[in-house]
Design brief:
- With about 250 residues, this protein is α/β, with parallel strands linked by helices.
- It is built from eleven helices and eight strands.
- Helix 10 links the parallel strand 7 and strand 8.
- Helix 1 crosses helix 11 and helix 4 packs across helix 7.
- It is globular and about 75 Å long.
């Protein structure tokens, strides 16, 4: 028998240098994790888990994920000091409710910063001071209407809407770049929007947003680009808080 030597080791503390972000993806999502990895810096450690869902997207199938969310979040490593956890579904966050999503996540990771695409889109629109927006969705009418109602506010108005009216999430992931670009161009010509939101984490818009924004002359925001921005903003806000706490005036 070979003698196995014990090798001493030290532990690194990577919580500050390499912030951990948890991502709860839909079982049917084929786009979000790839796009976030392209948009976020490599210094951010992304931890993925999945939540079961129906390939047919409707209010009932979206609402069904509410009870499953805590168990899916619990599959993330419990010993990792997560700074942000994202529930990656725009339509379900709309149907379930942003507050209910945050509460479900914090049942597993109390006190963690929580994001979802709907909250991220709203935060991005506010940061850009958007008052008139156009909306592109892939959803069936009832889901699109719920999103319209959620985005409307006393200071923000949805002035034009287009939808692919597709219920199957696997088909949403394969909507052609040319179809998306054509739809964005059509919406930009209606209602004089300040920005266009292309909703759904399964719509593939990485590499298209900058091109569309330049050609249309207004910002184009996708669910995934908004989430990437929101993750960075939440981390920045936490860092600012820590800095002010350690340097009291």
């Amino acid at each position: 028998m070979i003698d196995i030597r014990h090798m001493p080791f030290e532990l690194d503390s990577d919580a500050e240098k390499l912030p951990a972000v948890g991502l709860v993806l839909l079982q049917t999502d084929e786009s979000m994790e790839h796009e976030l990895r392209l948009w976020l810096p490599q210094s951010i450690r992304l931890f993925h888990t999945r939540i079961p869902n129906s390939v047919d997207i409707c209010s009932e199938s979206l609402q069904a994920m509410k009870q499953l969310l805590p168990d899916s979040v619990a599959l993330l490593p419990s010993t990792t000091p997560f700074r942000v956890i994202v529930y990656g579904c725009t339509s379900a966050s709309t149907v379930i409710g942003e507050q209910a999503v945050s509460e479900a996540v914090r049942r597993v990771f109390p006190g963690v910063a929580v994001s979802n695409p709907l909250s991220a889109i709203k935060a991005r629109l506010d940061a850009l001071q958007v008052r008139r927006l156009a909306l592109l969705t892939p959803y069936v009418p009832e889901v699109s209407q719920a999103l319209i109602d959620s985005l409307q506010s006393s200071e923000r108005h949805v002035v034009s809407v287009g939808s692919f009216n597709e219920s199957r999430d696997d088909r949403v992931a394969r909507i052609a770049r040319s179809s998306i670009l054509h739809s964005l161009e059509e919406l930009a010509r209606t209602g004089k929007p300040d920005a266009i939101v292309a909703s759904c984490t399964n719509l593939r818009l990485h590499g298209l947003i900058d091109e569309a924004s330049r050609s249309l002359g207004i910002p184009v925001i996708s669910s995934n680009s908004a989430v990437a921005w929101h993750i960075l903003r939440l981390l920045e806000m936490q860092d600012e808080h820590l800095a002010s706490s350690s340097n009291p005036r």
